[in-house]
Description:
This protein has 9 helices and 7 strands. With 245 residues, it is of the alpha/beta class. The protein has one domain: 3-Layer(aba) Sandwich (Rossmann fold), CATH 3.40.50. The chain has a 7-stranded mixed sheet with strand order 3-2-1-4-5-7-6, with helices on both faces. The longest helix has 23 residues. The mean pLDDT is 93. S-adenosylmethionine (SAM) binds next to helix 2 and helix 4.
Amino acid sequence: MTPAIAPDQVEADGGSFQGAVRRMFDGLAPRYDSFNRWASLGMDEGWRRAAIARLAVAPGGRVLDVATGTGDLAFASERAGGHVVGCDFAAAMVRIAADKAGETDSTAAFQVASADALPYRSGSYAGAVSAFAMRNVRPILKPVLSEILRVLQPGGRVVILEFTEPTVAPVRWGHYLYTRVLVPRIGGLLTGDREPFDYLNRSIDAWFSPDEFAAMLSECGFADVGYRRLSLGTVALHWATRPSA
Ligand SMILES: C[S@@+](CC[C@H](N)C(=O)[O-])C[C@H]1O[C@@H](n2cnc3c(N)ncnc32)[C@H](O)[C@@H]1O
């Protein structure tokens, strides 16, 4: 069910990038969690823990996981004491998140919703998180950031994880070999379709530097904007706050 044409190629053809992203993740959904584990060499859990630690919402605070996928960041946030809602526009991803919640004692709620039209009241969340989704909303990034700002309470924080290019040359070369050569080859062999893995790399290439994305958060009205790099600079952890006044 994975599309033969990747989102950026559809866009180049004048089609809907977001429509192609949704179809791609609906197709990937059953394999998504196992892909995440092996491709990140198990580091994805640590990245989520770092994001939740930075969010630091008080126990019982309402947290929104934007583009939640199969819900792992939402569950990490719930374990830290948040009351969590996760939303994503790919219904197959949301179904897996909801199934995982049903198999445990999780009270996290999962809904199908697009990040540029969040179906939540303004100021209704103490915190928001989003992992590895921003590259996939690149053409509608500012509306998405504005929506996150809107649903946060004044003083509420957003924490965002996204891939980035390592700055230290030998790390960059090793990372290049792993992500550009090994991951697409192994992924292609395991799934019979290497296009989603190639799209992952092209979407990282088309993404902003951490400084550029931080500037964009400021432009959209966020305050106290900052970031740090994780895992030898392969991932950027961004944070920003809705101003109090
Ligand atoms: C790489 S996955 C990340 C999923 C999850 N956050 C994680 O860390 O595993 C990107 C997710 O973004 C979602 N997505 C992309 N564009 C979206 C949009 N406009 N609204 C809601 N979800 C979107 C996709 O459906 C997909 O589940």
